[in-house]
Each structure stands twice: as C-alpha cells, then as structure tokens.
Design a protein that fits this description.
globular, transmembrane helix
C-alpha cells in the first residue's frame, strides 16, 4: 500500500480503537497524527503541530465561556421558566415551544446543552398526552437546528473547515438550511404522531409546572447522578466530548429577573445581533473574539459566575476537533484526502458522488461523533468541488446537515437521552421508532438536501 492509503487505514483504525476502548478520540488522534506525520510523511514536527486549528480553539473557548456564565448565573433558567409560563393553554404548541427553546439553548455554544430540555419536556409530554415521539423529535430537531447557529459548535466547525479549504460558506445560510430542514421534519412528525389531535387539547400552565415539579425526580435520565446530569462519553463517539448537565429542575412559576439576568440577556442579544449585523454588512465577524469581549464585560459585572464558568469551558470538544483536524491536515499534506475525493469523483456523476458522501456522513454519524464527522468529511468533499459540477457551499451544507439529523437515533447521545427521559412504559416503543426514524434519515436526508441544494447549483 502507498503511504496515503496507509494513512487512511490508520485514521479509520484510530477512530475504531477510540470508540471501542472508550477513550478520548481527539487526544488519540493527535498522538497518532504526530507519529504518521513524522515517520510516514516525513514532516517536521512543527508542521504537524501547525495543523492544530488555533482559530477553532478561540471560537469554542470564547463562545462556551460566555454562555456558561449565562447558565451559571441562572439567566437561562429564568428565560426557560418565563417562556414556558406564557405558552398559553393549547397542547398543540408544546412540542413547538420545546423545539424553539432547545434550539435557542443549543445555539449557545454547545449543541448538547440542549439536552437540558429532555428531562423537562418528556414528562410534560406524558402528562398532557403528547406522543413522546413527537416531543422527542421536537427536542432532537431543536438541537440539530441550534447547533448550526454561527455561535454554536457545528456551525463553527463546518464554516471554519470550509473556509480553511477555500470554500465560501455563509454561516447564516448554513443556519437557515439546518433550521429549515428540521422545521420540515418537525411538521412531518406532527402528521405522523398525533399532532392534529393536540389542537383540541388544553392544559393549565400552572398545573403542568406543578405536576412536573412533583415528578421531576422520577424521570431523570437512566444513569444520571443526584443532580440529574447525563454522563458523557469522553471518547467523543456520540457525545462529542461535550459535558452536558441535563438537570431535572422543577419548572416552577417563573421568578422575577434580577438586574444581572437582564444584563446577561441584553449581552446575549447584543452578541448574536452583532454577529448577524456584521455578516449582513459583508464583513467577517470573529465570533470567538466577540464572545471573549462580551464575556469579559459579563465577568466584570458578575465575578462569582465568571469564576464558576471557567470549569464549563468546552475543552473536551476543543481537543476532539483539534486532534481530528490535525490528523486530517497531515493526510492532506500526504495527498490522502485528495485520493478519497478523487475516488468519489470517479463514480462519474457529481450528484451521485455528493449523494454517496452525504449517505456516508449520516450513516457514520448515527453511531459516532457528529463533530468528528464534520471535521473529517468536509475536507474529503473539497476535491469533488474542485473538479467542478457542484457548488462548494451546497455540498458542504448538505453534508453537514445530513450528519446531524440522524442524531435522534437511540444509538446517539441525543436519541439515548430522549429514550432515557421517556416514561418506562414508552421506552421500548420510543427506542424502536427512533431507530427507524434516525436510520431512515440516512437516506431521506441526502435525497432531500442533495435534491434541494446540490442539484439546482449543478444545472
């Protein structure tokens, strides 16, 4: 075998070993990348280390730190309580509410932070006879939507990786594609899982908050600790190495927001608004630097929360993405990535090649790290773009969203959390249906996204 092929085999084997041994994928990837670069590619060690994406480190650390302060000082809890208390009395709106709330939380740096809504939403769904599949898919779709916001992990990784390969991908366009796809899927879920019947069902907001308070401790995720936290696999093989606190807090009547909460909320809006404004003006906002600036202001206003939030910085994901991208950069230097892209292009039709890559992204991501797939597969699509026939932004956006919408399968962290927080009597059915839904997305996602994004740009 040629050195590029050997490097590809080692890359796949490293993924497999990290998953089977349940060790941190990023750390193992970085160590093996150093060995491959030195002894197989003949690269200086400085060149290997230069492949570590420092720009991603600034982005992820800045964004996760800023929103961690908002979590620690209670602003996010107040926001959720305030919104839930004002949803009205129509049960039809409950899954939509949790979709929007989960998307908002997932947009705050760490997508899996949206899992805090699972222990809240699933018991509420049972109490008000909302099909647990509908609520679970609403929460999963919210995570997939918010994850591609310019301020969240999947959006940051996809756009940064695309830009490093010379492909211009607008972060707002990527976010809109992800949100639009998941809204369509939520509408389908409403049709399949009793959404129309919910329009005639009413509830009293005060009742459901009280009912949830009484039962929250009974519906913690399986394996959760006393604080309701879901243990996360440090390997990054489904949990993406993100530390998630899915706390089963009672949704009591909303407390009044204090000054610190209002200031934090204002800074959150200011950060998101600044990013959107600069993007609309055609500028290239550095979200990481902006997050550090706003976090510094918030830290000075609320020093205790600033100190406590340091431990919540998402170092695990920084290492996961950094290790994978470092290995990919070594393979790019060796020509292994071009080899894969050329192999996909040799299939013949660019559309077929794009479809195959999207299917692979969804299939692998259903069982492994979505973040890892984004970091590894986006560069592989670049040679296909370079050969012409398809628009770079379209295929990368399709690839990224296809890797995300399968995460509701019970083999992934999102789907597992939905199953764990469902009522015990519903778990077998929910597991079976989530498996069918998630695996069907392996084909439906590429058909939908390649058909709507890649096909029109290739005509």
């Amino acid at each position: 075998m040629t050195p590029p092929v050997v490097a590809l085999v080692i890359f796949i084997a490293t993924f497999a070993v990290a998953t089977l041994r349940k060790v941190h994928t990023g750390i193992l990837m970085f160590a093996v990348a150093a060995g491959v670069g030195l002894f197989l590619a003949g690269m200086p060690l400085d060149d290997v280390v230069a492949g570590f994406p420092l720009n991603l480190l600034v982005l992820l650390v800045g964004v996760t730190y800023f929103f961690a302060i908002a979590q620690v000082n209670g602003t996010i809890d107040r926001l959720v309580e305030f919104t839930v208390a004002r949803v009205g009395t129509n049960a039809f709106l409950l899954p939509i509410l949790f979709f929007v709330l989960t998307a908002g939380i997932a947009a705050m740096g760490s997508p899996l932070a949206g899992l805090v809504m699972a222990p809240v939403g699933m018991p509420i769904a049972r109490k008000h006879r909302v099909d647990p599949m509908l609520m679970g898919l609403a929460i999963g779709g919210g995570i997939s939507s918010g994850a591609f916001a310019p301020t969240s992990l999947f959006g940051i990784v996809t756009v940064s990786t695309a830009e490093s390969a010379g492909v211009d991908l607008n972060p707002l366009v990527l976010f809109a594609i992800a949100a639009g796809t998941n809204i369509v899927l939520l509408a389908v879920a409403y049709v399949l899982f009793g959404g129309r019947a919910l329009s005639r069902r009413r509830f009293v907001p005060a009742d459901f908050t009280r009912e949830f308070s009484e039962e929250s401790s009974e519906h913690r995720p399986a394996g959760a600790g006393d604080d309701g936290a879901i243990p996360v696999n440090a390997s990054g093989s489904a949990a993406d190495g993100v530390r998630v606190l899915a706390e089963s807090r009672p949704v009591a009547s909303p407390q009044r927001m204090q000054v610190v909460h209002l200031v934090t909320l204002g800074l959150m809006v200011a950060l998101i608004g600044t990013v959107i404004l600069l993007a609309l003006l055609g500028l290239d906002p550095d979200i990481g630097v902006l997050a550090f600036v706003f976090a510094s202001v918030l830290m000075l206003i609320d020093p205790p929360s600033g100190r406590a939030a340091v431990s919540k910085i998402d170092w695990s994901t920084v290492l996961l993405v950094g290790g994978i991208i470092t290995f990919v950069s070594v393979m790019q230097e060796m020509g292994a990535v071009d080899l894969l892209g050329d192999a996909a292009a040799e299939i013949g039709a660019p559309l077929v090649s794009a479809f195959v890559l999207c299917v692979l992204a969804g299939l692998i991501s259903a069982f492994a790290s979505t973040t890892g797939m984004l970091a590894a597969l986006v560069p592989i699509a670049i040679p296909l773009v370079a050969n012409g026939g398809v628009a770079g932004w379209a295929i990368i956006a399709a690839l990224a969203v296809c890797a995300s919408i399968v995460d509701v399968s019970p083999f992934s962290t999102v789907g597992a959390a939905v199953v764990a927080t469902a009522d015990e009597s519903d778990r077998a059915r929910v597991t079976r249906l989530l498996a069918r839904w998630g695996l069907s997305m392996v084909i439906i996602g590429p058909v939908l996204l390649v058909g709507l994004l890649v096909l029109p740009t290739s005509l």
